[in-house]
Design goal:
Layout: E1 2-4, E2 8-9, E3 18-20, E4 110-117, H1 137-151, E5 159-164, H2 183-196, E6 202-208, E7 211-215, H3 219-222, E8 227-231, E9 244-245, H4 246-258, E10 262-268, E11 283-285, H5 307-318, E12 340-343, E13 352-356, E14 359-362, H6 363-375, H7 381-395, E15 402-405, E16 422-429, E17 434-437, E18 450-453, E19 469-475, E20 481-488, E21 502-505, E22 510-511, E23 514-518, H8 532-542, E24 550-552, E25 561-565, E26 570-575, E27 588-589, H9 595-614, E28 628-634, E29 648-649, E30 658-659, E31 664-671, E32 677-684, E33 690-694, E34 701-703, E35 708-716, E36 723-733, H10 762-768, E37 781-782, E38 792-802
Parallel strand pairs: 4-5, 4-6, 6-10, 10-12, 23-24, 23-25, 30-38
Antiparallel strand pairs: 1-2, 1-35, 7-8, 8-9, 11-13, 12-15, 13-14, 16-17, 16-21, 17-20, 18-19, 18-21, 19-20, 22-37, 25-26, 26-27, 28-29, 28-31, 31-35, 32-33, 32-34, 32-36, 36-38
Length: 808
């Protein structure tokens, strides 16, 4: 869709709106699909449960470094992190590792129930399909546990965990049977944690596994054709096993709320979802193979409550809906009351798990953890959801994380400030231009992770101008790793790095070069009269036209895009889940001799387009982080220029704002910093173009400290479009700069060359890495930390424009 002021512009995107989701979901009443809140301070994954020795409780990776039994009595951490690492390694009276004067205390009033299911016993559902065993759920849960223990100081005794690890070659989970996530065990743990927690205590519930659907056990509530959304136990293959149904979840959570507990629930699963083409080995979907409604006869009695009690709870939750058959767009429970819910996807979509950095994760979990690393645990649910939505939905078009309930709460309902965790440099190798860090696989560290090294004795890590160097892990060990120095900063030399100097983990760089997989069409989709192998070979031959912006995958590498051929004999570009990317027009017929080259050029265009969406200041210590507030308001449907302006907030919290063609909206930007900031707004449009939306005629608009600007926009769509999603990306800089580097024409239009000579400031040099030209990329990845990260920040909002939306 397009946005217009006096011109047509594409309307903004809710990518930012979706990054605030799951933070402090207090008073929850509904379980959702978010098994992923396991953010590790290293943002790499622990080895999956199936990789660890029998009886080992943690994942051996991201957050917890070793099992409890390996620690000295009374020691709260996993050991091996080094003296400057986690709060758990410090005496109770010692300030945090960053020296910021904040002391984290244990939180005895915090309780958690964590459920992760990778292993599903062999079975067949009513239509012959089955719930496939997964590979990332237990890892997700172990990272959640590590986060709670390491960052929130939750005692191990107050964390209840049920997991089913998928050990290769085993016929059952490796955990003791009493810790399997069966229906009986899940219900028992819900009741145990409710009994154990006292009023005003915090309770966090995290589920990672399959979601399922079955005919309702309460047709009087949901109708004869009603469906119960359910969590799927590990032993669902037994026909005597019951699903944990939505009516039961509602009751279990209501019991907690009635006791006065502050409840947070996250679920990373789905229930249905249309069939996704060509999922391949890169992805799995957390539902049955076909999304079937399982009609297998099963016991209908509940261990949670009586039929009347379940009905009473459901009717109470649904009383504000038109009838009790209605559920919210996430598909789980009636509209939330007094709590916040983060769901992995909408009711008719899929929740994906895939490889990130070489390890399997739920997409929602992975990006939630990464977002928590960026924002800290004090971020609002709304802000967190904005970022999670942006990251997940960009990679998986058919997965839309949903936020429901009270979106303005902070993450876990407390005021703890996330400390900055560092690891020490333990050796400097001048000859090899590398340093050894006291961190490794046992801490969840991944190869390629980047750190900023500060001078020995640094206490204030917000002083980014004091950084000595940037390093990247190249050889990962168990507890120590070697990192190559990628850049010395300022006038510093490698000799300035001392043993014991603190290294601060940075967020990942932006990927400029994208990976492509050539995908043979499924037999039923193979076009007649066309040799698809020759057609795909033509793409491979045309790859040099991409000038290094795109590369074919090798072996089992994860692809960013896939190229296949449809039944009509047309090339298709798919996302990594096998879903065709929408609005790539016109279709490119294989018979066209220039089609293969055009496909490669489109892949280059998409790579640049998505790199711009991903562009963010990932520096966790940037003083401008969170210093601009961006919000979208709509005007009355019948508004005309000249009418009194009435600003109306979008009331569909957590969902993407939707407007009709020709409607007016206002973009609101407020400078919350103590300095004047220069504002530029880019419109990232559904015709795959990127253009400057605001201001017009000049490169930027200066906004004073504490001041705000409002910009009126009129929505429109490109010709032939019925619906479009746009992103409005707001940049704020201390020094004035041009963002011409980032502009792109519409798909298949020639890119106008940019003058690289303009890049004179550090920020401009960083933006030049995204150069929208036909030239080869200057690097495969780019990290903002090396380019004056203290001088800029960005936020973005997403909006859907839909023709005829106001007509119902």
């Amino acid at each position: 869709m397009n946005l217009t002021t006096s011109k047509n512009w594409s309307i903004f995107s809710v990518r930012a709106v979706l990054t605030t989701v799951i933070h402090q979901l207090r008073l929850l009443i509904t379980p959702k699909e978010n098994p992923s809140l396991t953010t590790n301070i290293w943002h790499s994954e622990t080895p999956r449960a199936s990789d660890r020795p029998p009886g080992r409780e943690d994942a051996g990776g991201r957050g917890s470094t070793s099992r409890d039994s390996d620690r000295p009595p009374g020691r709260g951490d996993a050991g091996g992190r080094g003296s400057t690492s986690r709060d758990l390694d410090r005496p109770k009276d010692r300030d945090d590792a960053g020296g910021r004067g904040e002391t984290l205390k244990q939180t005895p009033n915090f309780h958690a129930l964590l459920i992760g299911i990778d292993f599903y016993f062999p079975h067949k559902l009513s239509d012959g399909s089955y719930y496939k065993s997964l590979g990332g759920c237990v890892r997700d849960i172990n990272h959640v546990e590590a986060f709670l223990k390491n960052r929130l100081q939750v005692p191990q005794t107050q964390i209840l965990k049920l997991t089913a690890s998928n050990v290769e070659g085993s016929t059952k989970p490796s955990e003791p049977k009493e810790l399997w996530p069966t229906y009986e065990n899940m219900v028992a743990k819900f009741k145990e944690i409710t009994e154990k927690a006292q009023p005003q205590d915090q309770v966090y519930i995290h589920y990672s596994g399959h979601g399922g659907r079955a005919p309702t056990t309460s047709p009087e509530l949901k109708g004869e054709d009603g469906i119960d959304q359910s969590l799927v136990p590990t032993d669902i293959g037994n026909p005597e096993t019951r699903y944990l149904r939505d009516l039961e979840l509602a009751r279990l959570l209501e019991n907690m709320v009635d006791k006065g507990l502050v409840v947070t629930v996250a679920l990373d699963s789905c229930h249905s979802g249309g069939a996704a083409r060509n999922i391949g080995d890169d992805c799995d979907i957390r539902r049955s193979e076909t999304g079937v409604v399982d009609t297998t006869p099963r016991p209908t009695d509940s261990l949670v409550a009586s039929e009347d009690e379940l009905a009473q709870t459901w009717e109470s939750l649904a009383q504000n809906n038109q009838n009790t058959r209605n559920i919210t767009s996430s598909g789980w429970l009636p509209e939330p009351k007094g709590y916040t819910l983060l769901a992995a996807c909408r009711e008719n979509e899929s929740a994906y798990e895939t490889d990130f950095d070489g390890e399997r994760h739920g997409a929602l979990t992975y990006w939630m953890l990464r977002s928590l690393e960026k924002f800290g645990t004090g971020v609002s649910a709304k802000t967190l959801h904005n970022r999670v939505f942006a990251k997940v939905h960009t990679q998986f078009e058919k997965q839309t994380p949903m936020l429901q309930g009270e979106s303005d709460r902070s993450f876990f309902g407390n005021n703890l400030v996330s400390p900055q965790f560092t690891v020490p440099v333990i050796q400097v190798d001048l000859e090899e231009n590398q340093v050894q860090l006291n961190a490794g696989q046992a801490h969840g560290l991944r190869k390629g992770a980047e750190f900023a090294i500060y001078p020995l004795g640094t206490a204030d890590f917000t002083q980014t101008n004091q950084r000595l160097a940037l390093v990247k892990i190249t050889q990962r060990g168990a507890v120590n790793s070697w990192a190559t120095i990628t850049q010395m900063l300022g006038e510093n030399k490698i000799e300035d790095i001392e043993d014991g100097a603190p290294a601060l983990l940075l967020s990942p760089s932006v990927k400029l070069v994208r990976k492509i997989r050539l995908l043979s069409p499924e037999e039923q989709n193979q076009p007649s009269g066309i040799d698809y192998k020759v057609a795909l070979q033509a793409i491979e031959s045309a790859m040099p036209e991409g000038k290094g912006w795109v590369e074919l995958v090798s072996g089992d590498e994860t692809a960013d895009y896939q190229v296949s051929i449809n039944k009509l004999g047309e090339y298709e570009i798919l996302d990594r889940a096998g879903i065709p990317i929408a609005n790539l027009r016109p279709a490119l017929e294989v018979s066209n001799p220039n089609a293969a080259i055009s496909v490669v050029k489109r892949l280059v265009h998409l790579s640049k387009y998505h790199a711009n969406i991903d562009l963010d200041n990932h520096d966790p210590m940037s003083p401008l982080k969170g210093k601009i507030e961006v919000e979208l308001f709509r005007l009355p449907d019948d508004f005309e220029p000249g009418d009194p302006e009435e600003f109306i907030r979008f009331n569909d919290s957590g969902n993407v704002p939707t407007l009709d063609v020709g409607q007016f909206a206002y973009l609101y930007i407020r400078n919350k910093s103590s300095l004047p900031l220069n504002i530029t707004v880019l419109a990232i449009q559904p015709d795959w173009s990127i253009k400057k939306l605001y201001p017009t005629g000049v490169a930027f608009q200066t906004v004073g400290s504490g001041k705000e600007v409002k910009w009126r926009i009129k929505t429109s769509l490109p010709n032939g479009y019925q619906e479009g999603t746009d992103i409005l990306k707001v940049f704020a800089t201390i020094d004035g700069t041009s963002f011409d580097w980032l502009e792109l024409p519409a798909l298949d239009k020639p890119i106008q060359p940019k003058n690289a000579g303009k890049a004179t400031t550090p920020l401009a040099k960083f933006l030049a890495k995204f150069l929208a030209s036909e030239e080869a990329p200057p690097t495969k990845n780019v990290n903002s930390a090396a380019y004056a990260s203290e001088e800029w920040t960005t936020e973005q909002i997403t909006l859907v424009v839909k023709k005829g939306f106001n007509n119902g």
